[in-house]
Amino acid sequence: MYGWIWRKLPGGIPGKLLGCAVLLFATLVLLFLVVFPWAGPKLPFNHVTVDTTPTAHPTATSSPAVPD
Amino acid sequence: MGTGHWRTVLRGIGQLFITAGLVILLFVVYELWWTGFTTKRDQHRLLNTLHQQWAHGVTIEDPPLGSAIAILRIPRLGPKYLFAIVEGTSTADLIKGPGHYTGTAMPGQVGNFAVAGHRTTYEHPFYSINRLRPGDAIVLETRTRWFTYTVENIPGTSARYQEIVSPGDVSVVNPVPDQPNPGLAATQRVLTFTSCNPRYSASQRIVIHALLTGSMPKSAGVPQALHGYRIKET
C-alpha cells in the first residue's frame, strides 16, 4: 500500500517526500477535525449524565438528560 | 499469480493493521489531550461573552442551550480551577464545559441546581470531584451575586455528600435530591454534580451534593471561600 503510493508520487525524491508530507497532513486533518469528533461522543466514558437511557445502548446520546 | 503476488497482498494487509493501530493511538491522543484544547478555546469564548453580558447589565432569563450561565470555582481543586457552566447537558453542550440540567433550579434558587461534567476528556472539569469532602466550598458567580454551596449530606433526605449510583438513577437531580418523586416540593437550595465513574469508564455515576450556605451581592466583595483567589474584574 505505502510502496504503491511512493511509486505513484511524482517529482523524484524531493517531490515524493513533499507528496508524503501533504498526504500525511491531510489524513491528520481529516481524522482530528472530522472522524474523531464524530467518534468521541459515542464512547462510554464520555457519558456523564444520569438519564433514563438504558445503559445497554451507550450510543444513544440524543435522549433527554432529565426525565419530565 | 506466483508467490510474489501473495507477498504483495500479505504486505498490504500487514500495513493496514499497522495503520489501524496508529489511528487508534492517535484517537487516544485526541481524546485525552486534543479535546482539552478545543474545550479550553470554547471556555475562553464563553467567559468573554459572559463578562460582556454582565458588563452591559444583561441577564438572560431563558439562556439558550450551550451558552454560559455562571462561573464555577472550587477552592479544593486549586486556585486556577475555573469553568463557565453552560446551559444543557447534550453532547454538544458538555464538550464546551460542565452543563446545567435544563429544568432544574438555577444558581441560588430553591431546588436542585444540577450540573454534569466530563471526568477524563474535554478538559475534564470533574476529574477530581471525588476529592471533595464535607465542608468544601463550591462557589458560583452570576451577574450580580456570589453563591457559596458547601459539600455535605443534605438534611432531611437520604442524599449523601458523595454517592456512586447507576447511570439510570435520575432521582439524584430531582428538586429534593434522591427522592424518587420529581414533583416533591423543594424547600432547600441544593447543588448536585454528576460525572462518570470510575475514571475512563461509564459503568457508574459519581454524584456530589452540596447545600447553599452563603449568598452575597458582588458589590459587597468576594466570599470568604475565595479569599486568596485572584478574581477577574468585570
What does this protein look like?
The complex is a heterodimer of chains A (68) and B (234). Chain A is mainly alpha-helical and 68 residues long. Chain A is built from two helices and no strands. Chain A has helices at 2-8, 12-39. In chain B, strand 5 (137-141) and strand 6 form a beta hairpin. With 234 residues, chain B is an alpha+beta fold. An eight-stranded mixed barrel of chain B has the order 1-2-3-4-8-9-6-5. Chain B is elongated. The longest helix of chain B has 53 residues, at 3-55. Classes of the chains: A mainly alpha (68), B alpha+beta (234). The A-B interface holds A 1-3, 28, 31-32, 36, 39-41, 43-55, 58, 61-62, 65-68 and B 11-12, 15-16, 19, 23, 26-27, 30-31, 34-35, 89-91, 94-95, 101-104, 114, 116-122, 126, 165-170, 172-173, 182, 194-196, 199-203, 205, 207.
Distance between the termini of chain B: 75 Å
Average pLDDT taken over every residue of chain A: 78
Q: Distance N terminus to C terminus of chain A?
A: 54 Å
- The oligomeric status of these chains comes to heterodimer
The percent range for helix content of chain A is: 40-55%
Name the helicity range of chain B.
Answer: 10-25%
* Category by helix and strand content of chain B: alpha+beta
Shape of chain A: rod-shaped
Main sheet record of chain A: none
Q: Indicate the mean pLDDT of chain B.
A: 92
Most residues in contact, chain pair and counts: A-B, 30 and 49 residues
